[in-house]
Design goal:
CATH architecture of the largest domain: 3-Layer(aba) Sandwich
Order of helices and strands: EHEHHEHEEHEHEHHHHH
Number of strands: 7
Strand content: 5-15%
Helix content: 40-55%
CATH superfamily of the largest domain: SPOUT methyltransferase, trefoil knot domain
Strand order of the largest sheet: 3-2-1-6-4-7-5
Structural class: alpha/beta
């Protein structure tokens, strides 16, 4: 199996102050297929505590690298995007996470790239921003309160989607069936038409126009086989209910006329005679 392009992506955390955020970043990396984490002068943290925050991430935790300087941490990175909300960074190219992902994956085809996040209190200093190729700012409301782990997850999510590296597919609903056949559609439309006719729906409406609209509605809904069958059985049940109520109405009418149930006529003409 070819190695994922996301393996060329490095997450760099500058002077992280909270072990919980380090664990949350690792958790985001594990979910999005990125495995290289570099820490520049981080706070003290316990590896066991990190694994409690980010379950089943021993492989990533064992790969964590520590650096004393920004230059050392970025030495092998051909392209670096720094995440910052600072408005005065006019000399840098500005990105959103989505547009940054495009450039990052393009450069990742030739070498290592990095996304860098700053301290929880002040973000990336000028010293770090001077070493990035572009700035990424996450559009938010005026509240503007994303922590490092949240920002990292958004960045990695865009990379993951663009790379087409979704290794875990969303499961289909447990009872989902395949697409209905043409015959199944026609049977459903026939039963719907009969049910509507039974309640005299077409008495003042154009039958052809109504059924064309019903077809359009069902096709836009794109039901699976089970859902279409449910629609069909509902129409059939309408017909059965009408037939059942009709029989009960005849029985009540005969009872009121004094005809014993055992003497009920078997033909419509006999019932009319009564």
């Amino acid at each position: 199996m070819a190695e994922s392009v996301l393996h060329a992506v490095t997450v760099v955390l500058y002077e992280s102050q909270d072990p919980i955020n380090i664990g949350a970043v690792i958790r985001a990396m594990k979910n999005m297929g990125v495995r290289d984490l570099r820490l520049i002068r981080p706070c003290r943290y316990d590896l066991n505590r990190i694994e409690q925050i980010a379950h089943d991430t021993r492989d990533l935790v064992e790969r964590i690298q520590h650096f004393d300087t920004i230059d050392d941490a970025l030495a092998d990175c051909a392209y670096v995007v720094g995440f910052s909300g600072r408005p005065q960074a006019a000399r840098w190219q500005r990105h959103t996470p989505r547009s940054a992902a495009v450039d990052l994956l393009e450069y990742a085809q030739q070498g290592r790239v990095a996304i860098m996040f700053g301290r929880e209190d002040h973000g990336l200093p000028n010293e770090a921003l001077d070493r990035v190729h572009a700035i990424c700012t996450i559009p938010t409301t005026e509240h503007f309160s994303l922590n490092v782990a949240q920002a990292c997850l958004l960045a990695l999510y865009e990379l993951h989607l663009l790379a087409g590296d979704a290794t875990k597919r969303l499961q289909a609903p447990r009872h989902a069936k395949g697409a209905p056949t043409k015959e199944a559609y026609e049977q459903a439309f026939t039963d719907m038409r009969n049910a509507l006719d039974a309640i005299a729906y077409f008495k003042t409406r154009n039958e052809e126009l109504i059924m064309r609209t019903m077809r359009s509605l069902v096709f836009r809904a794109n039901p699976d086989g089970r859902e279409l069958l449910m629609l069909r059985t509902a129409s059939i049940e309408v017909l059965r209910t009408i037939e059942r109520e009709s029989r009960l109405a005849v029985q009540r009418a005969l009872a009121e006329a004094g005809v014993a149930q055992g003497e009920m006529p078997t033909r419509a003409s006999d019932a009319e005679a009564v």
